[in-house]
Amino acid sequence: MRIKPLLDTNLEENTGIKKEFGGLMLTTKLDEQITLIKHYEKTFINNVLQIGSVLAEIKETKSYKEKYKSFEEFVETNFSFTRAYAYNYIDLYKKYGQNVKLFDKIKPYGIRLLIMSLAVPDDYIEEMADEISQIQRGEKTKGFEKIVKRFTRQVGSEPDYLENLPLKERE
Q1: pTM for this one?
Q2: Helix (H, G, I), strand (E, B) or coil at 25
Q3: Which residues does 85 contact at the CB level (< 8 Å), separation at least 6?
Q4: Contact, 88 vs 164, CB < 8 A?
Q5: For residue 23, which phi and psi values (nearest 5 degrees)?
Q6: Along the chain (171 residues), what's the average pLDDT of each consecutive run of 10 residues?
């Protein structure tokens, strides 16, 4: 079964994206698809702090216990992400919720860098974001890891880049 894409409907009505940019019309279906994906990606990144905020409140008030035995069961029953990602969203909210300008500097580089930045002390985040903005497009992943590693070493820690950052015991 094939999912009917939004492209077959009114693009502007469904997404707020206009087909015309600066007098130029999008010329192919692929152009429209790229535009949609970029829009959805930005929407997701913009909502990470809100997701983290709500999850933090649920976790802190233990309201999940009304229906579930654990926070993990609550998350994995209701959402398409794991407990580990739920904690990443909570940690991102705690780190950037009061400093959205700093979050805005890092979010263009994606969720992976945002999660990696959790290991960087707050005092170095802005400097790290400035350095990351200088990385060439094809060298992003290795460049991110190298910069994050350098900034985390300044406080003696070294995150594992192949897996999610280790979770603290939280339950």
Answers
A1: 0.65
A2: strand
A3: 164
A4: yes
A5: 85, -10
A6: 44 52 61 81 85 94 94 94 94 92 84 88 84 70 72 56 42 41
